Amino acid sequence: MLVAVLAFSGCASKKEDLEYDRETIEQNTDMLINTCAESGSEFFDYFRNMTDFELESNLSGSQFSPEGLLATFDAWEAGVEECGEYVEHGEFKFEASEDELVVSTEATFKDRKATLEFVYNEDLLLETMTVNAHFSIGEILEKAGLNTILGMGTVFAVLIFISIIIYLMKFIPVLMDSFSGKKKEPKEEQPAPAAPAAVPAPAASASNDSELAAVIAAAIAASEGTTTDGFVVRSIKRRKSNKWNS
C-alpha cells in the first residue's frame, strides 16, 4: 500500500505555467504605455465617463478589461504626479505563473526613475498596472522623518485636547447650577471653639507651715497679752464648721 501511495503521488501532474504570445503581449503593453504618455486627463475622463456597456463594447477583442484599463489610467496619473513627465522605458521582462503573467520594465521620468508593472490574468486580460518610483536614501529618510513627526504630533495634539477636556470638566457643575437658576448658599462660618478656661494656679501659701504657725502664735499671744515664749504651735487643723462668722 505504501508503494502504491508513493507511485500515485509521483504520477501527480503539475500545472504548467501560463502560455502566452510574448510578441503580442509586448506590443499591447508598449501601445498602452505610449497611449498613456501621449494622452492627457481629458482622454482618461472620456473612458471614465463611459457606461459599462460602452466600455465593454470599445474594449471587446482587446487584451484590456474595463476595470484593468481604468486602474491603469489612475496609476499612470499618480505616477506622473510623483515622478514627473514620462521620458522612455527599457526592455520588458516576463514572469509567468499558473494563473497570471507579470510584465515589467524600467522607465525614466523627468524627476526620477520607476518600475512599470503590468499584471495579466489567466485569460491574458490586463488586471492592474502600478508605477513603483525609485527614491534615494535621503528621500526615504526624509519621508520617514516626516511621517514620524506627523504621527507624534498627532498623538501629542490628542493628549493635549484630552487634558483640556478633563480640566474643563470641573466647571460643568457650576454651569449646570447657573442654567438651573440655583445659587449656591454660602456656608455659615462656625464659631471657633472656645479656648479652655485657664486653671487657676493654687494660691500660694503664706510661706510654709512654719511661717503660718508663727503668725498664729503671734496672734494668740497678742490676744492673751503674753509672749510666744510660753507656748509652741505644733500642728494646725481646719475645723469643719466655721464659728468665727457668728
Topology, element by element:
Elements: H1 2-10, H2 22-38, H3 41-48, H4 52-59, H5 66-83, E1 86-89, E2 93-96, E3 100-109, E4 113-121, E5 126-133, H6 137-168, H7 172-180, H8 209-224
Antiparallel strand pairs: 1-3, 2-3, 3-4, 4-5
By CATH, the topology of one domain is: Nuclear Transport Factor 2, Chain: A
Give the integer mean of the pLDDT values. Answer: 80
CATH class of one domain: Alpha Beta
The tally of strands reads 5
Given as residue ranges, the uncertain stretches (5+ residues, pLDDT < 50) are 201-206
If helices are DSSP runs of H or I spanning 4 or more residues, what is the number of helices? Answer: 8
Termini gap: 143 Å
Strand content: 5-15%
| Class inferred from helices and paired strands | alpha+beta
Q: Would you identify the CATH architecture of one domain?
A: Roll
Shape: rod-shaped
Q: Compute the gyration radius: what is it?
A: 56 Å
Main beta-sheet annotation: 5 strands, antiparallel
Multimerization status: single chain
Brief rundown of the structure:
The protein has helices at residues 2-10, 22-38, 41-48, 52-59, 66-83, 137-168, 172-180, 209-224, and strands spanning 86-89, 93-96, 100-109, 113-121, 126-133.
Would you give an account of this structure?
With 246 residues, the protein is of the alpha+beta class. Helices cover 48% and strands 14% of the residues. It has eight helices and five strands. Strands 1, 2, 3, 4 and 5 form a five-stranded antiparallel beta sheet that branches. Strand 3 and strand 4 form a beta hairpin. The protein starts with a helix and ends in a 22-residue tail after the last helix. About 2% of the residues have low confidence.
